[in-house]
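Input/output pair, single chain:
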Amino acid sequence: MTKAAFLLLAAPLLLADAPATAAAAAKKDAPIPEQLKMMLDAAMASGNEGEVATLVKYSRIAAPDSIDLVREVTNKWLADRAAQRILVLQESSFFTLVKGRAELGGFANSGNSDNVGVTGVLDMSREGFRWRHKLRLQLDYQQANKVTSREYYLAAFEPNYKVDDRLYIYGATQYESDRFIGYHNRYSASTGAGYSAIKRPNLTLDLELGPAFRHTDFTDDTVESNLAARGSVDFDWRLSPTLTLRQDASAYVVGDANSTASSTTAIDAKLLGPLSAQFSYAVRYESRPPEGNVNTDTTTRASLVYSF
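Output:
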């Protein structure tokens, strides 16, 4: 069969299929239904990426003929937001991007016994384009009948260099003092790699691992200076707009010397504006404390938190 004859026979079929093809193309490019467009506009105006993602997901069912246009609009919105965030990180002054949380709790009793206790924590961070800085200061003090029964101090600083959106290189320095668990002074320094295993608007998980050096002055006058392996976990889960679960844990592991581990589990409940109530339970473990000291120390706190 010649090419001309083939085209002559196929022409009626092509012409018959043309209206259907044109109709399908027109159907595929259908505009976004007005009600769906209003909801998308409202979600984008509020800046809620979670709501936008949910609307895109259900658009496949509610408006399948408009899904390509929905994706085009929302993808452009996400790209513009990402570009704006990068611009802010690049051009803002150092202190403009500083955020923090100040936690304060305490108690006082008088009568048959005189007790006083206070706990304070200051967490500050700055999220830059390539650098992230974190600072933590903590004080726990308790006195019963004028005898000190708890005294703990902590100061920690950690800079991070972000290799990409998830991988980063960290450095960490820390000072601690807790004579009731068995040491007057402890200095730690570490560096290594960190990875944001989960990075969602309501759920984050950061993991860190690297070598460390520690120097400890124990209460029995012994001194330890050794290399260790350091690991940490930072998990935050926003269960609802007003409720957040936090889990922080870290460990310094030494083969033939004192190893330590700490863990803090906290629930934050928003009260009003920047104020929230926090209930936390902290555990600190020493594998080889001085004689007369216990391995494990626990602290339960109820405090107010101010975010800024």
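DSSP finds four helices and twelve strands in the chain. Helices lie at 3-28, 34-46, 49-62, 67-91.
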